[in-house]
Amino acid sequence: MISSNELETLRQSCDQFISINSFFSTSIDKEQALSFLNSCDVGDNIEPVLFEIDANPALVTSKPFADVSLYSEFTDESEVLFMLGSIFRLKNVKRRSDGKVWIVRMTLCSDDDHDLKQAFIDMKDRFLSSDINLQTLVKLLWEMGELNLAEKYFMRLLEQLSPDDPLLGDLYHDLERLASNAGNLNKSMEWRQKAIALKNQKQPTSKSTIPKQSSST
């Protein structure tokens, strides 16, 4: 179930990339998935939506998905779990023939997806100089409102930095502001505390000295 506004946003985003900012639980059993919708109450401005995902395990390596049925509380749900940060290309959004359910068709992309790479190249050519780096590119995504993608690539950059990298403090502050923009104040405070701790760690500790007093005889 999603809101009517969210559905309209999806309808306007066909052939674009969307990123999932949490673990994405799905089922390979279509009838089972539809049964979840049938058991939900549809209120005002709420739309029943079924996501159909084409995911080729031979093409996706860095953000895998897995059949977790054996570990699920309900083993008959045939649950497949997509990892946080998975990126999909939205193919189309159509109402089913019976008019009861909207069908959203998506394809799981790999990080090496040609079109995804080309999208970054196009942004670089249009907006940035030739000496672009990942941090600058992520900030552009941020300005474009792609907060989920921005966070994904900020985290990737964070994994690449060494603990003494001079960019680390700036990256913590970027993540702090990004989380704040996304309305996640708790996460924003966590990144702020990391930035403060790093700053304190880099500051030299001052040692107080007590001048020696000469003894008079």
TrEMBL record:
It comes from the Eukaryota. This is Tetratricopeptide repeat protein. It comes from Rotaria socialis.
